[in-house]
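A student in our group prepared the protein record below, which I am reviewing. Thanks in advance; the entry in question is below.
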Amino acid sequence: MALMEHLREFKNRIIKAAVATVLGAVGGFFLYQPFITAIKAPLDEINAEQGREALLNYSTVQSSFSLMVTVSLYIGLVLAAPVWLYQLWAFITPALYKKEKRYALGFIFSAVPMFLIGLLTAWICLPAAVFALTAFNPDGTSNIISAEIYISFVVKFMVSFALAFVIPVILVGLNFMGILPGRTILKQWRWVVVFVATIAAMTAPGTDIMTMFYLAAPLLFFFFIAIVICLLHDKRVERKRAKLAKGLSETEIDRATSAEELEKLGRIEENSGSVESSRLSS
């Protein structure tokens, strides 16, 4: 395709994604009140059980309306995610080789569940985080929190934790693309432990050490599973290149090799070995 045709296709797919997002935002308008009720539940629990006052505050006249529009757009992006992800995939796919498409599909099918697991974990931990962070109020004081700031905190809290669950998938993707060797990741395992412990401490800042452990354990598990996958993939690539390097050009080594070609190479090696043995015997 010519450059102008690429740009025209990109524009059409952007328009389709935008229309889906707007329609999703309309649906988000009806979900706005249930969403606010759900994220405000930890503050209501503080008021009911702790005897402290924790309230959401709308600081300006138009802030309640602008916040409703913003949250509706956020919800619209989530609801329209299948559409704009498909548009992105359909635009990129023609430029990918078969092997690259396989890697990309594997990345998507792995990253999406991990992202959702991270969101679910963050949602479960949100009440404990809100309780712990508001527990430092002196006696006789209240938490009158700006609604904009509180919603921004909730969104960042959930997205950051969800992205932390996606990082192992990104590491595996970079390894399969030949950018990041597994040994390099393994050498940095101490930093991985520190990183995971920091995230767990920030997400569950309560005094219960077991809460931090429950959050850190699955993250460490996924990180080290990713490292094992990367190391196994590196060994497989090394073995394949060692077999293909005999008598093949660099282009032939880099491209995917079929089972028939590998079998043929094995027969060639056997034949060359038999020829060599006959020469020695003669």
The longest strand covers residues 54-57. Strands lie at 54-57, 143-146. Residues 3-246 form one domain.
